[in-house]
């Protein structure tokens, strides 16, 4: 994913383009992040008008997508505005070649217009989800997750979830340390799972207090990932019954405590595999898995390769960027 194409057209949201530029634009090779070649690709290189009086100068035509490793699509400020057919054709061709295509926020409307989302799961801003479903009934529209993937096509919810998706794409291709380094430079959180809920429905003071308690539990759990963390224990920390805790946790995060813990344990395991020389059984223990067998099963299912294969791929970076076991 070293060559990243941002597909631009008149009327795209400046925020989405800024997110793409901030994640893949700067040279962060000094902190262990690969160098990316980010290009803004359009039908031609004439200046493009953006909302708010801004102007963008594309630096490549759409044929640059042929060599891209990732294609990212900013949303239009008016989601139902038509997209030029050459842009839609370029997106279809990129997807047909197996290149990951990611749309931010209302960018899902563009992928749907290209016919790429027919019969696939997709998400957009919860406010726009009914409109997307009505306009494109062939799309399996969801309004809860922050981002989803289906068949190499990524879509994300509103505004800040575009940051979450972009960081997740970096994490998938280059590891958690690269994503965390970018997140630190952007002063944003390094990891929110895609099934995290977009919003809390009808917040109240009581809901705010519950949210604070749940946030404290999650923070404490992250510090103690290496320990057994059954729901009953987490519920005691929150001062709730296990059943009530599980219900409030799902409402706040969009997932179960078990799935939330599993996601963060996998992320911690990736960090340990990338930055230490600990044997796989020790990585499993430090990440909180009951056994190496369980760890390998979950890791392979989530990441798509075994822990040893993942380490072989990600530790090709200079050894100076890695921790020794004594430093952990």
Characterization of this structure:
- The structure is a single chain.
- This protein is an alpha/beta fold and 328 residues long.
- It is built from 13 helices and 11 strands.
- It is globular and about 60 Å long.
* Shape summary: globular
Content-based structural category: alpha/beta
Total beta-strand segments? 11
Helix content: 40-55%
**What do the pLDDT scores average to?**
88
Task: Itemize the secondary structure elements and their pairings.
Layout: E1 3-7, H1 14-24, E2 37-42, E3 48-50, E4 54-56, E5 60-61, E6 70-73, H2 85-96, E7 101-103, H3 107-113, E8 121-123, H4 129-135, E9 140-142, E10 147-150, E11 153-156, H5 161-174, H6 176-186, H7 205-223, H8 231-238, H9 242-253, H10 257-275, H11 280-286, H12 292-303, H13 307-314
What key phrases describe this protein's structure?
alpha/beta, two-stranded antiparallel sheet, globular, disordered C terminus
């Amino acid at each position: 994913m070293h060559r990243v194409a941002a597909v631009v057209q008149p009327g795209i949201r400046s925020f989405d383009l800024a997110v793409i530029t901030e994640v893949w634009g700067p040279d962060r090779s000094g902190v262990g992040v690969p160098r990316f070649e980010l290009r803004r690709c359009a039908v031609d290189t004439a200046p493009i008008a953006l909302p708010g009086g801004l102007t963008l100068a594309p630096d490549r035509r759409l044929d640059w997508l042929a060599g891209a490793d990732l294609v990212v699509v900013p949303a239009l400020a008016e989601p139902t505005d038509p997209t030029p057919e050459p842009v839609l054709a370029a997106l279809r061709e990129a997807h047909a070649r197996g290149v990951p295509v990611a749309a931010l926020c209302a960018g899902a409307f563009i992928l749907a217009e290209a016919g790429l989302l027919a019969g696939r799961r997709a998400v957009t801003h919860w406010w726009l989800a009914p409109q997307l479903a009505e306009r494109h009934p062939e799309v399996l529209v969801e309004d809860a997750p922050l981002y989803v993937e289906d068949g190499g096509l990524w879509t994300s919810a509103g505004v800040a979830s575009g940051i979450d998706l972009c960081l997740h794409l970096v994490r998938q291709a280059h590891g958690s340390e690269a994503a965390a380094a970018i997140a630190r430079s952007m002063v944003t959180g390094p990891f929110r799972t895609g099934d995290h809920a977009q919003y809390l429905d009808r917040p109240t003071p009581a809901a705010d207090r519950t949210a604070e308690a749940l946030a404290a539990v999650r923070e404490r759990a992250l510090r103690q990932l290496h320990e057994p963390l059954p729901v009953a224990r987490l519920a005691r920390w929150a001062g709730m019954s296990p059943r009530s805790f599980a219900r409030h946790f799902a409402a706040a995060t969009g997932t179960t405590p078990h799935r939330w813990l599993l996601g963060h344990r996998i992320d911690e395991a990736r960090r340990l595999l990338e930055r230490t020389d600990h044997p796989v059984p020790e990585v499993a223990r430090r990440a909180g898995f009951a056994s190496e067998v369980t760890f390998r099963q979950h890791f392979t299912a989530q990441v798509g390769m075994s822990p040893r294969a993942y380490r072989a791929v990600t530790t090709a970076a200079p050894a100076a960027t890695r921790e020794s076991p004594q430093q952990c």
